[in-house]
Amino acid sequence: MKCIVTAGPTYEELDEVRRMTNFSSGTLGAELADYLIDKGCEVELLRGYYSTSRILPKAQRTQNFTTTADLSWRLEGLASAEVGAVFHAAAVSDFGFGKIWQRAENGELTEVKSRKIATRSGTLLAELTPTPKIIGRLRGWFPKARLVGWKYELEGDGARLMALAERQIKENQTDVCVINGSAYGRGFGLMRESRCRHLPDKNALFDALWQLLAEGK
């Protein structure tokens, strides 16, 4: 089976030397890719340029992505009805930079346009603009694939997390949603058909995802 795994962070450029990114090592995605390869899958790993994981992935085909737009472009380039599953575990930036302003002592704002914003520019105000949601485009690119999304949350209770996961599945036509983060606690939740299954560790998660693929064969 052909599978695609995304792992690690995207980044968004403030200027040509400064960037905003997410805290994500890409380890879980790389380990999932290795697990699938050991099961006999043909895996394409898309890995964030700033992934810090020391795992050397077994995937013969690995691409490094940079910005959210770059990851989107690479996924679209792999679009095919032959892909059996897409595991979208990458930590995609929710925001990119829009306009940047410098604030003078009198409060007046002046827009800053520079390839490298001067370090002594004083107080700067940055406009954060939403990045396009990649997960919402996956079903169009991979119409027959099992689609697995992720919800990493730091705040909230179980009911809120399950509602967010259900919403992701419904809005993006994905099959399941993996929930993790400090809001969930230890382990992972696997949301499917309005039910959340607790999985104590990553090995249990990988086994559950493999079972999902086996059902579709």
User: Please, how many helices?
Assistant: 5
Low-confidence stretches: none
CATH class of the largest domain: Alpha Beta
- Give the terminus-to-terminus CA distance: 9 Å
Total number of distinct structural domains: 2
Instruction: Decide which structural class fits the backbone.
Output: alpha/beta
Biggest beta sheet attributes: 8 strands, mixed
Mean pLDDT, to the nearest integer, reads 91
Tally of DSSP β-strands: 13
**Strand composition percent:** 25-35%
CATH topology of the largest domain: Rossmann fold
Query: What series of H and E elements makes up the topology?
Result: EEEHEEHEEEEHEHEEEH
Keywords:
217 residues; alpha/beta; Rossmann fold; 2 domains; eight-stranded mixed β-sheet; three-stranded antiparallel β-sheet; 5 helices; 13 strands; globular
What is shown here, in short?
The protein is α/β, with parallel strands linked by helices. The protein has helices at residues 27-38, 68-77, 138-141, 158-172, 202-216, and strands at residues 2-7, 11-13, 19-21, 42-48, 61-65, 83-88, 95-103, 109-111, 124-130, 146-152, 176-180, 188-192, 195-199.
